[in-house]
Amino acid sequence: MTNSKFYKANGKLLITGEYLVMEGAEAFAVPLNKGQSLKITTVQENREPKLLWNAKSPSGLWFNAAFSLPSMEVIEASDRDKALLLKKIFKKIKTKNPLFLSAAETVIAETNLDFPPGYGFGSSSTLLVNMATWAGANPFELQLELFGGSAYDIACALSGKPLLYKLENGIPSYHNVDFNPGFAEHLYFVYLGNKQNSAQGIKYFKENSHFSKSDVHTVTALTRQLIASPDLETFSQIVDEHEKVMSRILKMPTVKERYFGDIEGSVKSLGAWGGDFVLFAVKLNREKFIKKLKSKGFSVIFAWNNLVKNP
Length: 311
What we know:
This protein has 311 residues and is an alpha+beta fold. Helices cover 35% and strands 28% of the residues. Helix 2 (123-135) crosses helix 3 (139-146), helix 2 packs across helix 4 (152-158) and helix 6 (213-227) packs antiparallel against helix 7.
């Protein structure tokens, strides 16, 4: 006898408030129409129960492993580090729900990413939310206790609309906002080709940045101004100002200074600076813009309205 359950979570991008969201700044984030699903099938059998894990992406199977139950010891894995991370997550979930995966049955788990794992769209956060939902655990608690950060990506995974996110005394707080700008056709997301490690980015921020409470308030103000932008020109000015603030704090050049000084328009780093997706606000027509980017070696380009989840 078999029994199946299905879960789905949204990907994410952090538009404003990177790094300083951990210090109390209000951030603007968007859920994506690309995410990750989790299908759980339980099989009643007399043999020793196991958890069989298969992770798929648009290019096919990218990770698989087998664990003994209920101990979660790794039997075999295509990538042992990934298997040990899964074990760590399951162990933490068991502290929240001791009965989780305690039945004498084999469990087959299949995850499906709507995007390549190398994109910074939230392969980890979508997985964590799906696993938490499956186990009846709080995904914010799991994220903050396991990995730290701000957990804004958890809010995006659960939300169907853009949102404002804030940590108040370390407790996540967020609400949905309406952001349907008439200039959305001029907004694009471009992949720089090098997925950033969030933990390393946070470590760099904590060790090298210098900021004040005034900076936190400034970023919150810029966030609120951005979502109220009446036109592309205002939106672009706010993007440029946000980049200047974070460039000073991080002691790093802006992404426009590094790669796109010859393209007219505004460019903003999203999340950890260095290699994930960036946001463009440009007046150039679509064909000329894409041609210019491809000539510079950047070929993964999404229009805002084709990527952001916003019913």
